[in-house]
Amino acid sequence: MNEKFIIASPAGDAGLCNRIKCIVSVSRLAEHSGQKMLLHWPTSFTCGARFSDLFDNKIQQISDKEMSKIRKGINFLDCISYNDFINNNKKYSIFNAWRFVLLPSEVQENFAKVFPENDGRYIDLEYERIPQDLRKEFLKCIKKLVPAKGIRNNLRKFSKKYEFRNIVGVHARRTEFLLNADGRGGVSSDERFFERMHEILKEKPPTKFFLATDSKETEQNFIREFGDKIIVFTGKNWDKSSKESIQHALIDLLLLARTKHILGTYLSTFTEIAWWLGGCKAKVEIIGQKEDKQKVLERYKKITNQSVLVRMVRKPLKFLRARFKIFRWVIEKILYYKNKS
Description:
The chain is built from 13 helices and nine strands. By secondary structure, it is an alpha/beta fold. It folds into two domains: 5-142, 3-Layer(aba) Sandwich (Rossmann fold), CATH 3.40.50; 149-291, Rossmann fold (3-Layer(aba) Sandwich), CATH 3.40.50.11350. Helix 1 packs across helix 5 and helix 1 (16-33) crosses helix 10 (269-277). The mean pLDDT is 91.
């Protein structure tokens, strides 16, 4: 019988945590099926680091050229669900989606409440609603990820300065997240974070906050508002197309995972993966009003139902906004001040 392979191939424009979710899903499926796992990790403007720049795990990788060769043939299938995968008679099963892939009947139909699609059999972004047995299953794979030595050294040095159990984690996702057409980037605004953080300080004045963000401007806004109550990993590179920036993002992620209370960004997998890396133990509050979250879901449904022609027009515009700094800078400024008003 010919050997079959399952490939984790995160989308080229996927960020760090969407990539982690893809790898975790494929790792779990490989264990269940006995198939060999391969990794295709494209670098891009949203992730300039290679897998080996971030993790010490020895996973067999295939290059862009090798992946292109596979896709030019007929012996592969792009998979979304477990059923796609298990019924595939091709040599290669390829996964690139951001959602965790579940086995049949692991959750019931319409389980998903935060970001439902199709039949709603998803656990993404559901946090404490996820069944304990299923948490244990995914945690086994997540715990296998070993940060690179340089990352571990930075974590150790930084962690010696603070008692993270007594610090509230804050994750404010910005940059290209603000460019989502469904408006998700405006839900967890600076002002909404500030309101909740001031409430916490009123209840517990000694509280300090560890801030993880991908925006220098946002970091400065929080420091102006709260002064020395804000703790940050300093000296970050903000250009996601660079190796150093994604390494710093992973450090932020792992530090956020050490807090026991996280104020998170709506629909951000960075907040989600911090919770998983912390053993699913942190209390997570997603910042934003219920009405704003509902509007995002309604817009998302409309966008997914748009015609092929509309999607084709939107795609190059999205690429320009994400790829070139000047486009990104202008739009971020507009959205920032729009959300502030």
